[in-house]
Amino acid sequence: MEIAKLEPLIVLTGAGISAESGVPTFRGAEGLWRTYRAEELATPIAFHRDPLLVWEFYAWRRELIAACEPNQAHWLLADIEKQISDFTLITQNVDGLHAAAGSRNIIEIHGSIWRMRCTSCGDRWDDGNVPLEKLPPPCPGCGEKARPDVVWFGETLDPEVLDHAFETVQRARVMLVIGTSGIVYPAAELPRVGKMHGAKLIEINTEITPISGIADQVYQSKATIGLQDWWADQQKD
What we know:
three-stranded antiparallel sheet; six-stranded parallel sheet; 9 helices; alpha/beta; 9 strands; single chain; 34% helix
């Protein structure tokens, strides 16, 4: 295998890769908490109205995710990164499992459930404590209440983070798209932009998605199996 043929290698991951670790999607029936749907609580309006309720919901989410571990797809991506000098992983997931597996060059376009952001001064900090000592958590700098540093329904993505992601995919020689529906924008635009700029597009998904039609190669399987098969195919070249 010639590593140079894969560089720059850019990976985009979605909920499908974490599903095999048991991370709930928080949509539909499995997203219900005290009869609330995630879409009702993960909003700026809900937080303004009742920050304690929203934080109780996120404390529950953090406990569920803390019980999950990286799966073989997470571990393999971390291993691939060690072998490829020009590698970037863009994820829509907020669960932190890529970092837990050892991936380092990560762009979290939807934020991280393990990071806080002050609603007053804007400071950000990591906090992996489960359970949290106080709800809502106070900012260590100014004392005002913090919120999860994630993108809520009705919010736009951080422009700097999004620009970084789009600039990154424009450099891609090979782009892997793993476990993402291809319907959540602006993330769904990333594979299209990569393809437009000459990337070889590889999709790994259990289902056919809008990305499948433009992909150069599709592995219709779970992330763990599809990624292992793709990597094995690279060893043959």
